[in-house]
Design brief:
The complex is a heterodimer. Chain A is mainly alpha-helical. Helices cover 45% and strands 9% of the residues of chain A. Chain A is built from ten helices and six strands; from the N terminus they run αβαααααββαββαααβ. By secondary structure, chain B is an alpha/beta fold. Chain B is 38% helix and 18% strand. Chain B contains nine helices and 13 strands. Chain B has an eight-stranded parallel β-barrel. A two-stranded antiparallel ribbon of chain B has the order 5-6. In chain B, helix 4 packs across helix 5. The radius of gyration of chain B is 19 Å and the shape is globular. Classes of the chains: A mainly alpha, B alpha/beta. Strand 1 of chain A pairs antiparallel with strand 8 of chain B.
Chain lengths: 250, 320
């Protein structure tokens, strides 16, 4: 029982920046030592901030290192990883940014964070052979409308209120990023058919079509959803297949 | 993935392992070298270095990975690790099991560790005498525990559960610490020796941790090594530390893993190797890792130290 109480006190002091450490911890002077205990508190914060930094390099570039560390530190203070797998930590950072008052005027920041999170999720997703156009060639065209598709495990769809995909793309690689050509809402598709993660901005109607197929709607049902967009559903389907966004059909 | 082995690539580390090694080798036949770690040096695997390693195939004993970094379902990390594993032995090092906690071990995490071990057939698996998870989640640091009969029993139960889940003997690593616990009644070396005795686990001796803790708490690192159950050591870790001060202005060393191994740690390493012989030795430089040649040179230095200690090692054994 004492073991449990001792670690409870330790964890409590880690949460409290003013604590010099629990009474039962000793430095060389035989009493709690604030600088010694602060090493642990600092390790926890620095490690979690580093995990967020690694996940959101474009957000970091957009706001600068100091702002980013303060924002990531505020997030880490309120949300600890639920498992020891840090490659999954920080998936909700975009929601946090959306409510982070000091970042309120950077209206596109949360969209860029959502895209970066989707990129990391895609990067770590299961391997699967993507569906190929040739796989559909043996089918009778009369059966097309009834087809249903399974999304590729690494495919992610995003609906954004701002040109998040263009801003993200402009911040890949070195050099001065150029502002988006048009300030419009963008939808994006993230895929990883093989080793490399690919990000595409979707054409009008593309998100609704892909979202319907990913949700299990038939090809005919998905085509109806985007019928008003003036784009041929066949070209949407070919685009999804070429991007490696689908795994199989039935 | 990886290169075909050359005809003359007949190194002894790829011989079938003897039956009583650290990790159970899975029963299916594997094309890669499923051996225990050789008594050579290795380094932590970093994504920044992979291309250079696969292109040059540096002469190195093994690579070590943090298990949790490979718990994604797929993608480039696993592709790269498969390529590395095709040509090098692997050490699987956990940083998140929280063995030194009174709470039950995370069964899902044990399953994930077992799945990684089955997939990559590491030469050994190691974890820490530390805790890292609590009510609010994973704290992402290796936190210290009191050493008492109560905590000893809890740690031993966790080590046994881990060995059962992974189907083999694990190594437990001595920690670096910044504070001690008032309620501790057992010395750290006795605590580790008793865990090894009760559970049959091996020990990972982190010599930088010994030096860091010795400086921080004012004990003699050589006396610690004298008291350490060296016969159970299956791997050695070496790393760099950072310098700070405590409230009283005394030196406080931080186990930072962000710089070269320091001279006093190399000296303790040489003395340890002279006693126990060549042992798989890892250079830990996880934070701000240097260019590959710098890291590789650190690993070579450990191999030279092993070669220099070897004659003395043989003399000692003859004398016994």
């Amino acid at each position: 029982m004492r073991f449990e109480a001792s670690l409870d006190a330790f964890a409590g002091a880690l949460r409290d920046p003013a604590s010099p450490g629990p009474a039962q911890t000793l430095g060389r002077e035989g009493r709690p030592d604030a600088r010694r205990f602060a090493v642990y508190r600092n390790n926890v914060a620095v490690g979690l901030i580093a995990a967020i930094e690694a996940r959101y390099p474009v957000v970091r570039r957009l706001v600068g290192d100091d702002f980013f560390r303060a924002m990531a530190g505020a997030f880490a203070a309120q949300e600890k990883p639920r498992t020891p797998i840090l490659i999954h930590y920080g998936a909700r950072f975009a929601d946090f940014i959306g409510g982070f008052e000091p970042a309120r005027e950077i209206v596109y920041l949360a969209d860029v964070a959502r895209l970066e999170n989707a990129w990391v999720e895609s990067y770590h997703s299961a391997e699967a052979a993507p569906l190929a156009i040739a796989d559909l060639e043996t089918l009778d065209p009369a059966d097309y409308a009834a087809l249903r598709f399974a999304p590729h495990p690494a495919a992610r769809l995003l609906r954004m209120a701002h040109p998040g995909a263009s801003i993200w793309a402009a911040h890949q690689g070195p050099g001065e990023p150029r502002p988006p050509g048009a300030w419009v809402a963008e939808d994006a598709l993230v895929t990883r058919p093989e080793a490399d993660v690919c990000v595409r901005a979707l054409p009008p109607g593309g998100w609704a079509f892909a979202n319907a197929l990913f949700a299990g709607d038939s090809l005919g049902e998905a085509a109806e959803i985007c019928a008003g967009d003036g784009v041929d559903p066949g070209s949407h389907l070919v685009g999804l297949i070429e991007a490696g966004a689908l795994k199989s059909f039935h | 993935m990886g290169r075909a082995r050359r005809e003359d690539d007949n190194d002894p580390q790829c011989e079938p392992p003897p039956p009583e090694e650290n990790m159970a080798v899975s029963p299916h036949r594997s094309p890669r070298c499923a051996a225990p770690l050789p008594a050579r040096s290795g380094v932590g695997l970093r994504v920044e270095h992979i291309d250079e390693i696969l292109a040059g195939r540096p002469d190195l004993g093994f690579f070590e990975i943090h298990a949790e970094n490979y718990m994604g379902e797929g993608g480039p990390p696993h592709r790269r690790l498969e390529a590395i594993r095709a040509v090098y032995p692997l050490s699987l090092h956990g940083v998140g099991l929280s063995i030194g906690s009174p709470r039950p071990l995370d069964k899902d995490h044990l399953k994930r560790l077992a799945a990684l071990a089955e997939r990559y057939e590491p030469g050994l698996f190691s974890e820490h005498l530390a805790w890292s998870s609590h009510n609010e989640g994973f704290l992402n640091d290796l936190l210290p525990l009191p050493y008492t009969q109560e905590t000893l029993a809890a740690v031993c139960a966790h080590v046994e559960e881990t060995q059962e889940a992974l189907g083999g003997r694990m190594l437990l690593e001595n920690p670096s610490t910044y504070v001690l616990f008032e309620e501790s009644t057992i010395g750290e070396t006795d605590f580790l020796a008793e865990i090894a005795r009760r559970t049959g686990c091996g020990l990972l001796l982190d010599i930088n941790n010994v030096f860091v803790s010795a400086t921080n708490h004012g004990f003699d690192p050589l006396a610690y090594l004298d008291a350490f159950p060296l016969q159970h050591v299956g791997e050695i870790h070496l790393a760099g530390y950072a310098d700070a001060q405590d409230d009283a202005g005394r030196p406080l060393l931080i186990d930072a893993h962000d710089s070269p191994v320091r001279d006093p740690v190399w000296a303790l390493y040489a003395q340890t190797i002279a006693r126990i012989g060549a042992t798989p030795t890892l250079i830990e430089w996880d934070n701000d890792p240097p260019a590959w040649p710098v890291l590789f040179a650190e690993a070579r230095r450990a191999e030279r130290a092993m070669a220099e200690a070897a004659p003395r090692d043989r003399e000692l054994r003859r004398a016994v």
